[in-house]
Specification:
With 580 residues, the chain is mainly β. The protein contains four helices and 29 strands. The protein has helices spanning 2-31, 118-128, 154-167, 453-458, and strands spanning 40-41, 45-48, 52-56, 63-67, 74-79, 82-90, 94-102, 107-115, 133-139, 143-150, 173-179, 184-210, 214-217, 231-233, 237-239, 254-259, 263-282, 285-289, 294-307, 313-330, 335-355, 358-367, 370-375, 380-396, 411-431, 448-449, 464-465, 554-556, 562-564. The strands form eight sheets. Strands 12, 13, 16, 17, 18, 24 and 25 form a seven-stranded antiparallel β-sheet that branches. Strands 1, 2, 4, 7 and 8 form a five-stranded mixed β-sheet that branches. Strands 19, 20, 21, 22 and 23 form a five-stranded antiparallel β-sheet that branches. The longest helix has 30 residues, at 2-31. The relative contact order is 0.07. The model is unreliable at 23-32, 36-42 and 493-580 (pLDDT under 50).
Length: 580
């Protein structure tokens, strides 16, 4: 009895093991890729490069032969211990077609598409640059197209490098990515230059003719002894030709001559003091797209003669003026990468040269070329220069020229001091185009009109503010500049800019905002905003104050006498500001 139960248990376990083995074999067979068409041509199978795929015929028969015309695209290998399946490996991007023949002669054809692993590349992009919205798309001729937007410009290089590592070369990558957000940069540059020059020169030469002598001092260079000598009668009527020189580079400015029957005296004195001042303020502004070069030039072109062939003289044009070259690149977190090169140049005759008889002036140039990173609206002082040059020269006769006071007649002196200051400021801005309601009402040159005959010939003005004009309203002359819409917006000297003042006048409670002098208070100080309007003392609500305080138009001057305010700064009469 017990033996019979044991036999039944063994039989049941055997049946269960056979069922499980059968189900496992069916699952393994279902995991093998089979052509979708029972005969003839099947659907295309996509295999990534370096990826493998197991294939099996629908007949489940032993595969006798496989035809593969493009072995460089895909490689077909048999699987040991499984003659009914083959292994296909992708080698290079392309399209091929394989034909499998079983042992009964039945053929099945399958298209194989080998391409880059797009899913793997998409996974890499999402993990490395999660903020980017980039989609890789397979293209023709074994290429990958990267399209979409990135948040930061530096992400473009990272994504491109990852894609190149997958596709195998930069020639297989087409970059169609864009950087999101505003990508237009306006660069404001300020180039300020000041040059001060002080030159002091002194030279003295003289010639004395007597009956028996000629005495001269020419160390200053004011007199040049001519090659043909001196003619005429001595004393009385000497003749000197081509004898005046240029000491220190310029002619003498004082001449003295004394004549007598016994002797003649000629003296030339140069005593000059030159002061030169040059100020240049250049503020170029330029707008460019991120990653694009931009150039700006305001100036001209200098014609420079250059030697040409066969002894001819050619002309070469060199640019000068205010120039700005810059390359902006918008980075992440609002930072801007700038390669900027501002330049200010001008003609300088003192640094010129002569080419085949033609005088060509030189040029003074201030140029800066640098690379910086900054945020929107920040200002950088890219460069600056403070230069001081002192140059002194003296020529004198030994011993005699060294004597105090008397030595000035036997010497020549030149002393030059030059101070030079330069600073360059840059400010980038991320900008966008203006809307139609943001356009300026007047462009440069449109805020004025041509003068009429009265304004041109009698007033001597070349342009007048737009709009009708009354020259003498109420018998009082009003200049043309007072007729413009901005006449009350800018300060005038002394605070006297007409009946309404200049903006906020001295009579306004806001204080002295017109840039002119305000009348002093009795204590000698400027009136404060509290002194401009007298406020009554606070009283309980039950007894409101009705006191009226009237301000006088007279203020005491420094001498204690009352002084009337000018009509241009007197506020119009009003009782609202006087009653509280």
């Amino acid at each position: 009895m017990h033996h019979t139960h044991r036999v039944l248990q063994i039989a049941c376990c055997s049946v269960l093991l056979i069922a499980v083995a059968t189900a496992t074999a069916q699952e393994l067979r279902s995991s093998v890729t089979q052509p979708s068409s029972p005969a003839g041509r099947g659907a295309a199978l996509v295999i990534p490069i370096n990826g493998t795929q197991r294939l099996q015929m629908r007949t489940k028969k032993r595969i006798q032969n496989v035809l593969n015309p493009k072995e460089s695209v895909a490689r077909v290998q048999p699987i040991p211990n499984d003659p009914t399946s083959v292994l296909v490996t992708g080698l290079d991007a392309g399209l091929t077609q394989i034909t499998m023949i079983d042992e009964n002669g039945v053929q099945e054809t399958l298209d194989i598409v080998v391409q880059f692993d797009i899913e793997y590349l998409r996974t890499l992009l999402q993990r490395a640059v999660p903020s980017a919205n980039v989609v890789p798309i397979p293209g023709a001729n074994n290429t990958i197209i990267l399209t979409g937007t990135v948040s930061h410009a530096e992400d473009v290089d990272v994504i491109s490098r990852m894609a190149v590592s997958v596709v195998g070369g930069p020639d297989r990558l087409i970059n169609a990515m864009r950087v999101g957000g505003v990508q237009q940069v306006q660069l404001d540059v300020v180039v300020a230059r000041v040059e001060r020059r002080l030159l002091r020169r002194m030279a003295f030469d003289f010639i004395n003719f007597g009956q028996q002598h000629v005495f001269a001092s020419t160390v200053g260079g004011a007199f040049n002894i001519p090659s043909n000598g001196i003619s005429g009668t001595f004393p009385g009527a000497p003749i000197i030709t081509n004898a005046v020189g240029n000491p220190n580079g310029v002619p003498s400015n004082l001449f003295l001559g004394i004549f007598s029957p016994e002797q003649d005296f000629f003296g030339l004195l140069q005593a000059l003091k030159d002061e030169n001042l040059a100020k240049i303020m250049a503020e170029p502004r330029l707008v460019s797209l991120s990653g694009r070069n931009a150039s700006f030039l305001d100036g001209g072109e200098q014609a420079v003669p250059v030697p040409a062939g066969l002894g001819q003289i050619g002309v070469q044009f060199e640019e000068f003026g205010t120039r700005l070259n810059f390359l902006p690149i918008v980075l992440g977190n609002g930072r801007i990468h700038l390669e900027v090169e501002p330049e200010v140049s001008g003609l300088d005759p003192t640094a010129g040269t002569t080419i085949n008889g033609t005088v060509v002036p030189g040029r003074k140039t201030q140029r800066i070329h640098t690379t910086v990173e900054m945020e929107d609206g920040q200002t950088y002082a890219l460069g600056g220069l403070i230069q001081s040059t002192v140059n002194g020269t003296t020529s004198k006769v030994p011993i005699v020229g060294e004597l105090p006071l008397l030595g000035a007649a036997f010497s020549r002196k030149s002393f030059e001091e030059v101070e030079f200051e330069l600073i360059v400021l840059v400010t980038p801005h991320l900008v966008d185009a203006m809307s139609c309601d943001q356009l300026p009402k007047f462009l440069p040159g449109q805020e004025t009109r041509s003068p009429d005959d009265f304004e041109l010939f009698l007033e001597g003005i070349l342009e007048a503010p737009r709009g009708p004009r009354c020259v003498c309203p109420n018998g009082r002359y009003v200049p043309a500049y007072r007729n413009g819409p901005t006449a009350t917006l800018f300060p005038c000297a002394g605070g006297r800019c007409g009946d309404q003042g200049s903006g906020v006048g001295c009579s306004s409670p806001a204080g002295c905002n017109n840039g002119g002098a305000c009348p002093e208070s009795p204590s000698g100080l400027r009136p404060s905003s509290q002194d401009a309007a007298v406020r009554p003392t606070a009283t309980p609500p039950a007894k409101p104050s009705t006191e009226t305080i009237t301000q006088s138009d007279e203020v005491p001057g420094n001498d204690g006498k009352p002084t009337n305010l000018p009509p241009s700064t007197t506020a119009p009469e009003s009782t609202e500001g006087q009653q509280r």
